[in-house]
Amino acid sequence: MPSVLVPLAQGCEELEAVTIIDLLRRAEIQVITVGLDDGPVRASRGVVLLPDQSLDAVLSQEFDLIVLPGGLPGADHLERDQRIRDLLRRQAEAGRRVAAICAAPKVLASAGLLDGHQATCYPGAINPADYPRVRFTDAPVVVDAQVVTSRGPGTAMDFALELIAQLMGEARRDEVAAALVRS
To answer: Which SUPFAM superfamilies match (predicted)?
Structure first.
């Protein structure tokens, strides 16, 4: 069973966080949520999320995927956290997947993990001039090698379904999508 780490920062976008966690768990993927600090996480619109563990408790573990929910100021907190930056770099150096949605691709960009890749993000979250080695697009979801990015809350379901496809294959993604009755 693939393992996925979802760091939850104060002020994260709850729709993105919950959609990612929910859909990956529906696909029977092991999802571990962690808080940057101990205790509950108050998301950007006041929803309170309870992480499974603290970030410090998982720093030595390996994951098949690390996914960053966006939202502000959540993405800013992720970007400033050296533990997150170190985890992401170690993940990329090992050839394992990283993913981010909404404003969180800026965390990947500032860590140098988008260099040479195509990526997308929430409009205005990243100044493309600051990252000339990244090819930005306005596509809803972008997969480039081991990096997956997405635009925002409205693309969260497509993003999560793509993560399922990356980890478990298209057939599993299609099973989860069918059960959601999206059309």
So the answer is: Class I glutamine amidotransferase-like
